[in-house]
């Protein structure tokens, strides 16, 4: 039995013991321990993402020892750490699959030298690209989970100083709702939403200068795609309102850009009563307009 397998069995046993000892009072700890133990019991996953699993186990340990007033925050961090460990395992397994498929590609290339060389190379390339996409998707999910964890920690800490724990939980719930609405909008529109950030007003989407045709307020093809995704996003959160802020340049006033986006959103099915269009200062290559979504 390998050293990693022995460690996996030991950790699984410890997790099981921990879960049993806490069964009477801490079901959430049991659930987290069971999820972590599941990663160790699967032979394919036992040796993957050891560091992330350790971080998750440490976070569960902090949760177990947390005082009542700190328990919600500790539970949130422990849940995120377990999610990150699960995603990291999937990422490493995907990377192994990439390596396996790369070896398959090499074998196919050898066979291609004997028979139907061109067809075999095309199939190998298709497999490589498919595996690469899977690995990139898994890595993106891991990075998003890590970024979400860090962002929510910052938001919760800031809000807890101002309005207390209840306001922090409400803000986190709204951001989760926004994330789900973002995913729904991108699926429905088939387009990628612009980058966004949260401030004390709401969620702010920034549209770069290539959203418009050069020297005009006419939406470019990329701009139409972004506005289509924004329209789907606003339809996914029907209670939200939008404030479009246009930034101008030497040829195009900011108000014209804001009005163009407002008209495009309305044409895509968003009620005009929900959209306000205003002009701001001078724009830049990175920022020609911003859409503030207020819930």
From TrEMBL:
Residues 1-23 form the signal peptide. It comes from the Bacteria. Gene3D superfamilies: OmpA-like domain. Residues 103-153 form a coiled coil. This is OmpA family protein. One of its GO terms (cellular component) is membrane. Pfam families: OmpA. Residues 201-295 form the OmpA-like domain. Keywords: Coiled coil, Membrane, Signal.
